[in-house]
C-alpha cells in the first residue's frame, strides 16, 4: 500500500465529519486549512511519516523525499514498478494560482476542483477565478498551461452556492478529430471547453482555448432556464441581468434542481460549434448548442425517471434528487464525418440509450432502455431480496469498443440476525446480446443487454454512508490490469478494483490529509492499438501519480469490511498491518503472476514475465556481479570472480534474465543524474547528451574488459559453456554495445541536421526551433513518448532524455516508423518536404544499423557461434519498420511528377544505401532460420519480392536519369545532336548507364537479384558481363544461368538459349529437365534421335501448360502459358514418329505402334477449332495419357484401321457408322458443349461418351478402350462393364422381341435385325475376328461368354463376362436369347452381308 499514516483518530460517519467543520483544525480528519496548517504538527499523529506529501509551494526535492528509493535509481527497470509512481508536478502557473487562491481564501472554504480527460490527455483545475488547462502527458519541463478567467457573474453565482459544495463539470471538445487526422502521440492543438457549475447550472463555452486570440466565452445562466431565454449573448457585449447578492432564489433553484452529468461532442460540419447534453435532477435532459456567438439551450426530453421504484420496504416514491445519474458517450472518440452519436444515460433503475444527430439542428431520440434493477436476476441487480433496503446505481462507464457497460452500484442492507446495517458496493458489467443487429432490429422492445459476468462485489460489508457521499463517487474503466476499474470517492481516495481468479482484489491510493485529495483518475493513452495504459490520478496539491500494473497485482488485497472513503483507508492502518500487507509481494504466487502477465489479447508481456521469473538466486547473482564490476572499476583487479559467480549460479540463466545481460542493460540504460528536466527541448542542444553516451560506451567497454579479465576470456568462455548452447546472453551483451554505438552515431547525425537547419534561410524561426525540427526530431519525440507511457517511472522525464537513455530499446525506433510514419511524414506537407524528411529518416536507419555492423566487425572475436541466433536488426519489428520507410520512398519515386530533379536524385541516393541495409536484415533473419532448421519459405518469398521491388525501382530511376541527361543539349543525341547521327550517342548512353548503375550492380550481385542483373545486361547489351555473372552464380539448380534460360524461354528465343547452353552444358541439362519441350531439340542436336522421340511423345501427351513445339519464334503459335491445342499435339506425335524412325533402336517398332495408337485416340476427339465440354467431366486423370498407355503391339490389323480410309463392307449400315465423325460432333445439341481444345485423358473421354447417351457415342467409348493399353483396361474394368450396360440399354429389346414373334423372323431376318443393335456392333468391334486393339484384346480383361452359370459372380464383385452383364438386364428373362444371339453373331461375323447363310439361333 501507499504512504501509510497510522494511528489517526477514529470517526463515526460522514455526517459527523460535516458537523465538525468548525472545530479546531488539529482535530479535524479533513485536510487542514492553509492558515491552520501552521498550528498542526506531524508528531501529533502516531507513526506519521516525517516526510509527508508536500504542499504545492514546496520544492520538488520534497516530493523526491516522499518517493520510494526505487525512483532515485539511475536505471529504470519494469520489475520495480510495484508502488505508485510520482510522474510529474503541476506547471508553475498552477502552483502560483494555488498559492494565491489559498492565501486569499477563508480557512475551511477553499475548494479546488479539477479533472482529467482521456481523449485529449488534458488536465484541468479551477482555483478561484482561474481555469487552468494542461496536458498530463507532457513532462514538467514542457508543460504549457492555458489560463482562462472565469466571467465575474459566473463566479458570483457559484460563490452564492458555495455552501452546497463546489461542483464543476468540464468537457473538452477536440476539434482535431473533426478537421484533421489524429495520432496517439500528437498533442491537441485546437480544443473547445464546455464548463458547467452543477449546482447553479451555469454553462460557459470557450470555442478554442489554444487560439492565439482567446475571445470572451459564451455563457448561459440558470435564470435563463426559468425565463425560457433561447440564447445568451457573449460576455463582453450586453451583460445579462445581475442578481442581487442577498437574493438566494438562484441557490434554492440550484439546490432543488441541479445538473448531475455533462457530455459534449463537436458538430463535424460547423466551425467551432458543439452540442452539449446535461441531465437535470428533476428528470430532464437539456441540450446546449454552443457556438462562439452564444449558447442555445432547450429541454429535449422529460420524464427520464420511470415509475418503477428501486427501493424495497421503504414506501418511498420512485426517483431521487440524484437522478438521472450519469451520461457517457458509447464511443469515446468521434470520427470525422460522423453524423450520429449514441450515448447512455443511467437512471435510478435502468440504462437508457439515446441517439443525437450531429447536424445544424441536433435532434435527440431514444433508442432503447434496459432495466438493470428488477426482480429478474438475469437482467442485472435483483431487488426485493431479504435484507435489501435501497439500491443506488451511482455511475456508468463504457469500454473503448462501446460493447461493455460497467455500472457502479451501492446497496443499503440490514442484517436480520444482528440488526446491523451496512453498505455493499458492486460492479455490474453488461454487454450487448450476441447476434443482435442494431441497424435492422427494433430495439425499443425487448431486452438489449445481457450480463457479461456475475455481479462483482467490491466490498461486501462497508460502512453506511450518506446519500450525498454516495453521489460523489465516480467510476473509471480502461486501465491496467485489463478489466480493472477505479472508484473515486468524494473525500479524495481512488480505489482500484481488479478481479483475479474470481476473487476481487482492491488497491487503494490515498495521500496524507495535508496533501489534499484525489480529484480525478484517467488512463495513460497507450501507443499500441487496443492496449490499456496505466492508471494516473490527479491530486489536489501533490501533482500527478501513476498506479503501475504491478502495484495493483502485488499490492491488492481482498476486500475488507471498510469503506471506499478515507474512513478505513491505508492512512488509518497500524504499522504492523502495513508491514503485513507489504509481505504480499514477497509471498506472491508465481502462478498468479504468470496468469496476470498476460494482456487482454492473451499475449505475454515480456517485461513483466521476465521480472516474475526472477528468483532470489537471480537477484543475488546480479548483485554480486554488480559489486565485482564496481570493484574492478576502482582497482582494475578481479580476484576469484569466476568461482564466485559460479557459486551463485550466475551462468545458469540465459537470455535477458542472465545476470550479465541485466548488468549490461543497466549500464546502457542508466538515466543521467545531472540531466535537468526543466529545459525541455533545449536538452538536445547540450553537449551533455553526447558526453553521457560516451561515458556509457566507455563503461560498457570496461564491462567487456571485466568479462575478459585482462587476457584470458575465462568468464566469456564460461558464459558460452554454462549458458545454453546458443550463447544468447553473451550476444545480448554485445548487442547492447552495438545499440550504444548506433545511438552515438545517431546523436552525431542529429547534431549535423541541427547545424544544417541553423544555416537555413528561414529567419523567422528561432535557433531552438530550427535545431529541434525535422523528421528525426519527431521520431525521437515519438520513441521517447512511447517509453514514457509504457514505463510510468519515466513520465517526469523529457522525451529526448528518455530516448537517449533507453538504449536497449532501440528497436522502438523501427516500431514507430512502421506504425506512425504517416505522422512523421504527413501527406499534407509539400512534396519536397516529404522527400527531405524521408531521406532524413532513411539516413538515420542506415546510420544505426551500419554502426552496429561496424561494432560487430571490430569485436568479432567476442561473438559466440551463430547457431541460429538472429541479429537484433533482423527481427521482424526492425524489418517492418525499414520496409515501411522504403515503401514510402518507392511510392514517392513512382509518382514523382511534382519532384524536381535534385530531390529525385537525392531520394534515389538515399534509397540505394537504404536498400542494402534492408536486404542485409532479411539475409540475417533467413540465415538464422536455416541454422535453426525452421521453415523459411515464407520469409524467403517476402525477401525476394521486396528485393526485386527495391532494386527494380532504383534501376528504373537510373534509366530515367540517363534518358533525361542524354537528351540534354551537348550530351548525346538530344535536340538534334550529332551523336545520334554518327552512332556515338548510343555508346555514350550505355557508358553513362554503366557508370550510374555500378553501385546497384554490386548490391544486386550480393543479393542475387536476378531480374535486375538480367535487365542490366540486356540494356547494356553486354554478353560478357552476362556470362561472367552466370559463372559467378552457379548453384544446384543453375543459379543465374537457370534464370537466364527462363528469360530466353519466355521470350521464345530458343536458338539463343541453346547456343548459350553450349558454354553452360550442365546448367542447360538442369533447365531442360523441367522444360522437356526444348529437350528434344537439344537431343536432336546431339543426334540422340530415339531419346528425342520419347521426349516428343511425352511432351505431346503431357498436361504441362508450358509444352508447345519449340521452333523459330516467327513460326511458333502464341500459346503463352495456355494448354496445347490438339493440332499441336498431333504435330508433336508425328515428329516423334519421324525421330523414332530415324533412331531405329531395338524397340522402335513398338514405339511406332504406340504412337499410332495415340494418334487414333487423338483423332477421336480432334476438332478443327477449340470447343468446350462439360467441366464436370474434365477431371484430372490419375496418370497422364502416356502413363496410362504402354508400349505393345497391334493385333489383327483391320483394313479400315486407317482413319481416313473408306468404310469396309463388314462395318454396320451408314446409320451405325461411327468412324466418320469425332466425338464432339456426335454430342447431342442439348448438352452444354464447352471448349475441348485441350487433351482429355481416356477415362474422361469415355465418361463423356457415356454421358452423351447416343449409340454412336457409346461405340466411340469402345474405340477409346481399344486403343489404350491392357493395363488401362484391366484397371478400369468397372468402367468397361458400364459401357456394356449402356450399350444394352440403347435398343428397345421388348419391341424387337415383339417384332420377332409377330413377324416370325427367319434366321436371315434375325441376323439382319440384330445386326443393327449396339450390342452386335460392340461385340464385333471388341471380339470380332477382325477387331483391332493395342496390346492384347478385350478377352483378357472381360471374356465374352460365361463358362457356367453356377460360377457367375455376385453383383457386388462385378461380372465375369459380357454374357453375365447381359443376364443382369431387367428384360433378360424375356429377350435373353436375342441379346445373346446379337452378342455371339457380332463376335463371329466380320461382315454380315458376305456370309453364305444365316446362323440359326439356339
From TrEMBL:
Its main location: nucleus. Residues 559-581 have a biased composition (Basic and acidic residues). Gene3D superfamilies: 1.20.58.1380, YVTN repeat-like/Quinoprotein amine dehydrogenase. It is found in: Nucleus envelope. The keyword Iron does not apply. Residues 81-545 form the Nucleoporin Nup133/Nup155-like N-terminal domain. GO terms for molecular function: structural constituent of nuclear pore. Keywords: mRNA transport, Nucleus, Protein transport, Translocation, Transport. Belongs to the nucleoporin Nup133 family. This is Nuclear pore complex protein NUP133. It comes from Carnegiea gigantea.
Amino acid at each position: 500500500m501507499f504512504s501509510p499514516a497510522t494511528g489517526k483518530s477514529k470517526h463515526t460517519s460522514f455526517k459527523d465529519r460535516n458537523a465538525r467543520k468548525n472545530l479546531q483544525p488539529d482535530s479535524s480528519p479533513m485536510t487542514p486549512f492553509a492558515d491552520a496548517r501552521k498550528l498542526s504538527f506531524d508528531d501529533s499523529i502516531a507513526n506519521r511519516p516525517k516526510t509527508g506529501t508536500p504542499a504545492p509551494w514546496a520544492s520538488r526535492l520534497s516530493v523526491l523525499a516522499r518517493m520510494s528509493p526505487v525512483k532515485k535509481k539511475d536505471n529504470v527497470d519494469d520489475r520495480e514498478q510495484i508502488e505508485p509512481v510520482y510522474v510529474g508536478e503541476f506547471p508553475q502557473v498552477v502552483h502560483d494560482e494555488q498559492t494565491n487562491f489559498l492565501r486569499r481564501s477563508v480557512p475551511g472554504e477553499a475548494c479546488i476542483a479539477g479533472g482529467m480527460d482521456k481523449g485529449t490527455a488534458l488536465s484541468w483545475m479551477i482555483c478561484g477565478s482561474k481555469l487552468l488547462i494542461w496536458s498530463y502527458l507532457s513532462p514538467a519541463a514542457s508543460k504549457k498551461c492555458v489560463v482562462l478567467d472565469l466571467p465575474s457573474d459566473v463566479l458570483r453565482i457559484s460563490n452564492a452556492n458555495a455552501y452546497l459544495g463546489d461542483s464543476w463539470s468540464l468537457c473538452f471538445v477536440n476539434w482535431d478529430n473533426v478537421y484533421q487526422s489524429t495520432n496517439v502521440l500528437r498533442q491537441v492543438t485546437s480544443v473547445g471547453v464546455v464548463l458547467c457549475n452543477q449546482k447553479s447550472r451555469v454553462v460557459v463555452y470557450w470555442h478554442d482555448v489554444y487560439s492565439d486570440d482567446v475571445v470572451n466565452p459564451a455563457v448561459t445562466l440558470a435564470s435563463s432556464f426559468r425565463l425560457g431565454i433561447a440564447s445568451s449573448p457573449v460576455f463582453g457585449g450586453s451583460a445579462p441581468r445581475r442578481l442581487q447578492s442577498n437574493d438566494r432564489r438562484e441557490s434554492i433553484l440550484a439546490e432543488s434542481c441541479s445538473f448531475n452529468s455533462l457530455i459534449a461532442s463537436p458538430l463535424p460540419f460547423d466551425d467551432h460549434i458543439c452540442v452539449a447534453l446535461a441531465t437535470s435532477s428533476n428528470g430532464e435532459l437539456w441540450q446546449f448548442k454552443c457556438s462562439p456567438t452564444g449558447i442555445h439551450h432547450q429541454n429535449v426530453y422529460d420524464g427520464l425517471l420511470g415509475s418503477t421504484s428501486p427501493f424495497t420496504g421503504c414506501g418511498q416514491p420512485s426517483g431521487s434528487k440524484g437522478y438521472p445519474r450519469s451520461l457517457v458517450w458509447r464511443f469515446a472518440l468521434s470520427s470525422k464525418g460522423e453524423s450520429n452519436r449514441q450515448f447512455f444515460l443511467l437512471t435510478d433503475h435502468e440504462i437508457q440509450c439515446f441517439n443525437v444527430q450531429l447536424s445544424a439542428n441536433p435532434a435527440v431520440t431514444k433508442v432503447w432502455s434496459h432495466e438493470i434493477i428488477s426482480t429478474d436476476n438475469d437482467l442485472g441487480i435483483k431487488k426485493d431480496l431479504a435484507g435489501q433496503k435501497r439500491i443506488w446505481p451511482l455511475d456508468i462507464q463504457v469500454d473503448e469498443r462501446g460493447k461493455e457497460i460497467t455500472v457502479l452500484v451501492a446497496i443499503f442492507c440490514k442484517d436480520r440476525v444482528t440488526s446491523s446495517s451496512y453498505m455493499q458496493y458492486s460492479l455490474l458489467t453488461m454487454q450487448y446480446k450476441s447476434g443482435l443487429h442494431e441497424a435492422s432490429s427494433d430495439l425499443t422492445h425487448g431486452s438489449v443487454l445481457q450480463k457479461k459476468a456475475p455481479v462483482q462485489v467490491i466490498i461486501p460489508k462497508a460502512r453506511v454512508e450518506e446519500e450525498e457521499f454516495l453521489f460523489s463517487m465516480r467510476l473509471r474503466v480502461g486501465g491496467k490490469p485489463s478489466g480493472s476499474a477505479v472508484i473515486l470517492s468524494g473525500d479524495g481516495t481512488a480505489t482500484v478494483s481488479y478481479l483475479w481468479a474470481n476473487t476481487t482484489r482492491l488497491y487503494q491510493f490515498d495521500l496524507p490529509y495535508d496533501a489534499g485529495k484525489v480529484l480525478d483518475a484517467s488512463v495513460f493513452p497507450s501507443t499500441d492499438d487496443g492496449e490499456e495504459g496505466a492508471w494516473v490520478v490527479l491530486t489536489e496539491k501533490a501533482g500527478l501519480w501513476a498506479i503501475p500494473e504491478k502495484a495493483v497485482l502485488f499490492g491488492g488485497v481482498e476486500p475488507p469490511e471498510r469503506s471506499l472513503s478515507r474512513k478505513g483507508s491505508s492512512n488509518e492502518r497500524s504499522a504492523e498491518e502495513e508491514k503485513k500487507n507489504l509481505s504480499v509481494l514477497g509471498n506472491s504466487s508465481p502462478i498468479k503472476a504468470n496468469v496476470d502477465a498476460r494482456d487482454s489479447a492473451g499475449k505475454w508481456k515480456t517485461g513483466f514475465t521476465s521480472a516474475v521469473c526472477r528468483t532470489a538466486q537471480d537477484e543475488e547473482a546480479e548483485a554480486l556481479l554488480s559489486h565485482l564490476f564496481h570493484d574492478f572499476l576502482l582497482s582494475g583487479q578481479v580476484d576469484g570472480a569466476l568461482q564466485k559467480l559460479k557459486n551463485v549460479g550466475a551462468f545458469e540463466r540465459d537470455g535477458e534474465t542472465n545476470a550479465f545481460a541485466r548488468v549490461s542493460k543497466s549500464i546502457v540504460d542508466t538515466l543521467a543524474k545531472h540531466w535537468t528536466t526543466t529545459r525541455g527541448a533545449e536538452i538536445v542542444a547540450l553537449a551533455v547528451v553526447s558526453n553521457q553516451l560516451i561515458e556509457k560506451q566507455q563503461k560498457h567497454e570496461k564491462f567487456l574488459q571485466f568479462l575478459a579479465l585482462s587476457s584470458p576470456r575465462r568468464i566469456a568462455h564460461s558464459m558460452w559453456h554454462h549458458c545454453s548452447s546458443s550463447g544468447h546472453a553473451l550476444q545480448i551483451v554485445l548487442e547492447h554495445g552495438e545499440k550504444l554505438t548506433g545511438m552515438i552515431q545517431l546523436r552525431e547525425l542529429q547534431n549535423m541536421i541541427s547545424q544544417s537547419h541553423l544555416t537555413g534561410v528561414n529567419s523567422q524561426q528561432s535557433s531552438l526551433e530550427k535545431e529541434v525540427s525535422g523528421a528525426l526530431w519527431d521520431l525521437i519525440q515519438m520513441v521517447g513518448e512511447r517509453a514514457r507511457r509504457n514505463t510510468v517511472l519515466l513520465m517526469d522525464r523529457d522525451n529526448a532524455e528518455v530516448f537517449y537513455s533507453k538504449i536497449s530499446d532501440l528497436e522502438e525506433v523501427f516500431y514507430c516508423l512502421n506504425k506512425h510514419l504517416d505522422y512523421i511524414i504527413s501527406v499534407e506537407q509539400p512534396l519536397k518536404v516529404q522527400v527531405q524528411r524521408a531521406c532524413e529518416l532513411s539516413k538515420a536507419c542506415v546510420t544505426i544499423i551500419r554502426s552496429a555492423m561496424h561494432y560487430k566487425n571490430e569485436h568479432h572475436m567476442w561473438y559466440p557461434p551463430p547457431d541460429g541466433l538472429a541479429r537484433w536488426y533482423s527481427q521482424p519489428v526492425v524489418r517492418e519498420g525499414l520496409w515501411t520507410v522504403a515503401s514510402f520512398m518507392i511510392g514517392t519515386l513512382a509518382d514523382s511528377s511534382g519532384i524536381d530533379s535534385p530531390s529525385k536524385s537525392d531520394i534515389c541516393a538515399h534509397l540505394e544505401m537504404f536498400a542494402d541495409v534492408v536486404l542485409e536484415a532479411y539475409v540475417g533473419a533467413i540465415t538464422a532460420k536455416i541454422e535453426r532448421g525452421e521453415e523459411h519459405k515464407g520469409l524467403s518469398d517476402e525477401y525476394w519480392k521486396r528485393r526485386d521491388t527495391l532494386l527494380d525501382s532504383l534501376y528504373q530511376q537510373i534509366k530515367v536519369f540517363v534518358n533525361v541527361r542524354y537528351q540534354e543539349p551537348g550530351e548525346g543525341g538530344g535536340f538534334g545532336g550529332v551523336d545520334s547521327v554518327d552512332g556515338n550517342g548510343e555508346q555514350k548512353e550505355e557508358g553513362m548507364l554503366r557508370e550510374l548503375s555500378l553501385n546497384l550492380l554490386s548490391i544486386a550481385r550480393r543479393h542475387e537479384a536476378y531480374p535486375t542483373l538480367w535487365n542490366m545486361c540486356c540494356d547494356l547489351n553486354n554478353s560478357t558481363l552476362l556470362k561472367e555473372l552466370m559463372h559467378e552464380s552457379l548453384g544446384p539448380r543453375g543459379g543465374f544461368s537457370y534464370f537466364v534460360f527462363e528469360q530466353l524461354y519466355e521470350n521464345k528465343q530458343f536458338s539463343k538459349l541453346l547456343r548459350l547452353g553450349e558454354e553452360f552444358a550442365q546448367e542447360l541439362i538442369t533447365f531442360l529437365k523441367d522444360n522437356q519441350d526444348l529437350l528434344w531439340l537439344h537431343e536432336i542436336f546431339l543426334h540422340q534421335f530415339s531419346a528425342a522421340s520419347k521426349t516428343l511423345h511425352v511432351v505431346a501427351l503431357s498436361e504441362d501448360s508450358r509444352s508447345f513445339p519449340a521452333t523459330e519464334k516467327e513460326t511458333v503459335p502464341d500459346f503463352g502459358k495456355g494448354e496445347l491445342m490438339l493440332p499441336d499435339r498431333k504435330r508433336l506425335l508425328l515428329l516423334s514418329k519421324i525421330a523414332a524412325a530415324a533412331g531405329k533402336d531395338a524397340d522402335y517398332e513398338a514405339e511406332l505402334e504406340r504412337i499410332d495408337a495415340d494418334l487414333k485416340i487423338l483423332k477421336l476427339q480432334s476438332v478443327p477449332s477449340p470447343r468446350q465440354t462439360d467441366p464436370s467431366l474434365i477431371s484430372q486423370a490419375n496418370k497422364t495419357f502416356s502413363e496410362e498407355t504402354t508400349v505393345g503391339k497391334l493385333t489383327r490389323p483391320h483394313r479400315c484401321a486407317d482413319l481416313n480410309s473408306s468404310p469396309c463392307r463388314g462395318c454396320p449400315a451408314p446409320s451405325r457408322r461411327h468412324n466418320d465423325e469425332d466425338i464432339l460432333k456426335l454430342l447431342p445439341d442439348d448438352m452444354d458443349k464447352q471448349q475441348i481444345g485441350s487433351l482429355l485423358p481416356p477415362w474422361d473421354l469415355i465418361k463423356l461418351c457415356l454421358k452423351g447417351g447416343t449409340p454412336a457415342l457409346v461405340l466411340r467409348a469402345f474405340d477409346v478402350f481399344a486403343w489404350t493399353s491392357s493395363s488401362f483396361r484391366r484397371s478400369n474394368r468397372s468402367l468397361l462393364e458400364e459401357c456394356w450396360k449402356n450399350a444394352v440399354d440403347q435398343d428397345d429389346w421388348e419391341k424387337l422381341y415383339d417384332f420377332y414373334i409377330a413377324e416370325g423372323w427367319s434366321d436371315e431376318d434375325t441376323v439382319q435385325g440384330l445386326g443393327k443393335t449396339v450390342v452386335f456392333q460392340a461385340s464385333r468391334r471388341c471380339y470380332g475376328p477382325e477387331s483391332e486393339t493395342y496390346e492384347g484384346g478385350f478377352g483378357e480383361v472381360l471374356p465374352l461368354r460365361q463358362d457356367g452359370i453356377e460360377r457367375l459372380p455376385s453383383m457386388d464383385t462385378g461380372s465375369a463376362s459380357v454374357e453375365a452383364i447381359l443376364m443382369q438386364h431387367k428384360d433378360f428373362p424375356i429377350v435373353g436369347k436375342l441379346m445373346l444371339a446379337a452378342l455371339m453373331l457380332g463376335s463371329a461375323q466380320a461382315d454380315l452381308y458376305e456370309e453364305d447363310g444365316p446362323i440359326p439361333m439356339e
